[in-house]
Amino acid sequence: MINGRKLIALCTSRVYDPQIHGYIVRLNELLKKEGYSILIFAINSDIYWEEDRQATERYVFDLIPYSFIDAVIIMDEKIKSHKIARKIIGHSQEYDIPVVIADGRYEGASCITYDYEAGFEKVVRHVIEHHGIRDVHMMAGHPNNRFSDSRIAVFKKVLSENGIRFDRNMVSYGHFWADPCRVATRALLSRGVLPKAIICANDIMAITVTEMLTEEGYRVPEDVVVSGFDGYDEIYFTSPKITTASCDILALADVTAEAVLKAVATRECYDEIITPTFIANESCGCPEHSEHPQILRDWFKESFARNNDDNRVLQLITTSMQISGSPGELVLPLRSYKTDNLLAVVDRKCFAEGANYFTEDVPEDETKELVIIYDSDYPEQYNTDSLDISGDFEFSEDVLSPSVRNRILELTENGYPLIFNSLDYMNRPFGFVCYFYRNYLISNYTNTMGVTNAISIGIGGYVNIQYQRMLLYKMDEMYRHDPLTGLYNRIGFQNEFRKLRKHPKNYKKTVTVIMSDLDGLKYINDNFGHAEGDRAIAAVAKALFKAVPDNSLSTRFGGDEVFSVIFSECDPDSIMKDIDGYLAEYNRESGKPYEVSTSSGYMTAVLDDSFDIAQAIKVADERMYNSKNRKYEERRKG
């Protein structure tokens, strides 16, 4: 609890799935009556149990604010990762937070499970005992899978009790999915003689078997009876509708709410078992049956909501974000009907200049500095002029970090769940989005996956492009500038001069070329080393650069010669005195056993079509050497 708000963390996946959506709606309405607000931490893809692949969207579960949560609910069969579930349970135990597992079993948590064996047994008995079919075949799931093996055991049990001898050829393996089920069904069809009934271990395989039988000219159920299991919504949209046993998601929500209230009140763990509801339907020859009409309507709405125009808008948002010129400009494309009721929160280090957040090595325990960059309720706060990702904040790496806490708590007051997805790019999480819909429309829930993906790619692409621009700028600087002095090299000078001489403000204006050359470079190199010679050249270049106006083009011409082109009226004699003055000060402070001095010359002309920069440099160079020779004669005579 925080500020009087009682909070429940719900960990799940695919909030846009009609079954999960129905569960969320029922659960929220039940817990809202008891003063609770639900924070939903959701992923959008399957992780597949013990699979050890990178799935950085799982970072969303690291954002659970355990310090302020009253209970945690884990939809185990939806997340499909024992590793994640155990991690959440471990953190919850550290904070003495009760955990309720919806459709799963773990130590240290209240567990709600379906009696899958009892539900599947109802289906098998209905086919064999009610319809009197003895020539039966089973389409099992994965070989050596506990769910598949337990259903095979039920199949064998019912066969035995009805005096039907089991043969291993009575079982095929469809791996619970459509494609491998097609392979297994094709092999069954190739036998030439089909069984009178095919009992499938789940609805996906039952639908697949029915489709393939129909394609081959067989009638279901007249020629072959087919049954499924799980109660997927799709069974009500097939022809014929599939006989199954439904693991009622709304019953799961009811029991979950009760378990949460009991666990919070007593701090004890409870086990609850739900028996799946048998549903006789057309695929076994029974009358048509449908249930949960609202979930079925949501199933249709969810499918209908996905359209190409949404994809076009999201692609435009992503592209516009990627090519933005600043963090403030980056958020402007988020002002769209697709991003209503959205809060975007990122690690402000994403936007650190001179670094690529997604390729640099970062310590695993480094806390992300989470800040809001966009709030659809107050979009005017986040634009090119006002977006400020600096500032002195206090941070924690969760959705109730002090930098975002007040806004998140304010959003819980609307009575609807808050949905959190992680933002990640190149397998690195960098923040989260919070959806605060003020209704239960499944079309909004469907929106979350696409928007999260668009924002992730938009920000990630922006950071990459900005970094590439910075690298290109640095490479260009290296290409155009002399590394010793920082002045333009010959190539850089030529490119810049071509631009400046064409500019209207410079045409037919006075232009001056000042050439400076280090005195006694050979003496310095021979007696003190080439490093000192380079230091002296750099000092002369800096003296020239500081003495000329800001709009000048300063260049290292070669060796120890540097020059500037000045595109304005100036006093060349005064500039050359400033150069000598800078070097005199340099000599006083350097402590070097030698003095740095320079000889200079200049040439002034008008920048018109007849102006020849090469000739101007040559004249200035000649005058510089005349000055150098005069100095030499003066030293020789003196």
Question: Over the alpha carbons, how many angstroms does the gyration radius reach?
Answer: 38 Å
Number of strands: 20
- Quick one: overall form? elongated
The CATH C-level class name of the largest domain: Alpha Beta
Helix segment tally: 18
Q: Sheet with the most strands?
A: 10 strands, mixed
Q: What CATH architecture label of the largest domain applies?
A: 2-Layer Sandwich
How many domains? The number is 4
Describe this structure in words.
It is a single chain. This protein has 638 residues and is of the alpha/beta class. It folds into four domains: 6-108 and 248-279, Rossmann fold, CATH 3.40.50.2300; 116-243, Rossmann fold; 308-476, Beta-Lactamase, CATH 3.30.450; 490-637, Alpha-Beta Plaits (2-Layer Sandwich), CATH 3.30.70. It contains 18 helices and 20 strands. Strand 1 (6-13), helix 1 and strand 2 form a beta-alpha-beta unit. Helix 1 packs parallel to helix 8 and helix 16 crosses helix 17.
Quick structural overview:
With 638 residues, the chain is α/β, with parallel strands linked by helices. The protein has helices spanning 18-32, 76-79, 82-94, 116-130, 146-161, 178-189, 203-215, 249-266, 293-305, 308-322, 327-330, 405-412, 442-480, 490-502, 521-528, 530-547, 572-590, 613-637; strands at residues 6-13, 36-43, 71-75, 99-102, 110-114, 136-140, 171-173, 197-200, 225-227, 244-246, 271-274, 277-279, 342-347, 370-375, 418-425, 428-435, 510-518, 553-558, 561-566, 598-606.
